[in-house]
Amino acid sequence: MNYRSVGYLLGKILIILAALMVLPLLVLFYYKMQGFKETEYPSFVIPIALSLLLGLVLCAKKPSSVKIFAKEGLVICGVGWILVSVLGSLPFVISGCIPSFIDAFFETASGFTTTGASILSEISSMPKSILFWRSFTHWIGGMGILSFMIAIIPKSRGNSMFVMKAEVPGPKAGKVNSKISTSARILYIIYFAITIIQIFVLYIGSRITGDNIRFFDSVVTAFATAGTGGFSVLNNSILGYHSIFVEWVCIIFMFLFGVNFNLYYYLITKRFSLIYKDEEFRAYLIINLSAVTLITLNIMSSYNHISAAIRDSFFAVNTAMSTTGFCTADFNTWPSLSKILLILLMFIGSSAGSTGGGMKVSRIVLYAKQAQRDLRLMTRPNTVINIRMNNRVLDKNIIKGVNAYLILYILTMCISVVVVSFNGFDTTTTFTSVIACFNNIGPGLELVGPTGNYADFNVLSKLVLIFDMLAGRLELFPILVLLSPNTYKKI
Q1: How sure is the predictor about 155, in pLDDT bands with cuts at 50, 70 and 90?
Q2: How far apart are CA 162 and CA 71, in angstroms?
């Protein structure tokens, strides 16, 4: 393994992290000037200085060759995400908002991985700069800090694809341009543009409807929606705004951020046929609307008006399927059918190439196609049947990778459930806490439901759930590679 190249690129990541933490520092300065009760400057100055120093040390001497391959790409991705989560937790610890480092690490890893699982019960009274950083971690992690590095660093080489592959969710890292750096830049511009649109829709629209959402709330809500993370600045999440308008805006944008971002590029370039023919998008839409219909029919008897049942169904389905984790209703109180459907949606997740988590709709489609092919081969064993996606024959390596992912996914989840069960909580809490963290959703059922949190879990369980959040966001391989002794052997 090329350790010098790995260290050099990790240094670049830490310098970018230091630059990104300047933004909440400016928020701190602004609100101090406005007379608000804020944390002190060292809360961000120290982490910025430390990240910058470590970054400059690692980048002090550029290696003669910065070429990286699959192994280096996975290691950079895994170590990079752990480092930003550790250093990103320091503002919480230094400010005293989360005195325990493990709890702060849990909260920050949950933010960067866009999980939205929290150990906090009182949120509204926290300093604005801390709340901003907490939600901003969602936005950074949504598209990925490594992808951001590729997008802004000039002269990215072709082997940046190995980093992109390691970080971008889905069975295959898609490109909208022949150059990976240009692809990353285009997708980040789209991501930024949709986020800005949501900010202004929330802010301006709420004035038209009379809800008058503050600009700060519009920004952090958009960050949490864009990254499909779900950290809110209110104790009651989105329900705390008491605004039907805000709920519907979040529903629409949760759905949009759960779509493969390549499709937005096709929309901009007027290649509408590619959007229509996209099998994953069609499946995403069908699953979404079918779940909304079933849950609405299941819960409507407990609502005074069907419109409220439809709205809560749309919200719950999209918050589960996009893995955002916002809440407007306590689905702990819903009938079993609705809760089971939501758990299934948590497993399925959003589209590949989106900011959402879960197994990804494309994998579910591929598993269904493989099952259909194998059933046909049982009656026609000598027939050659290729698996196609969007009218293209899939490479066997992609299918192997998808199957390997499923095996590791189930194995990791089972081990995590067993370890977390030592905490002594009920089966539903234990099982759904792992599902919620592994699929980057946040809220589960029972104690970790929409009105609960993860504060009562012991240190071991929190560390396991942190591992699950990172493994789920990076789709297992970058984190598991770090645990393999073969990674560090010289060949």
Answers
A1: very low
A2: 8
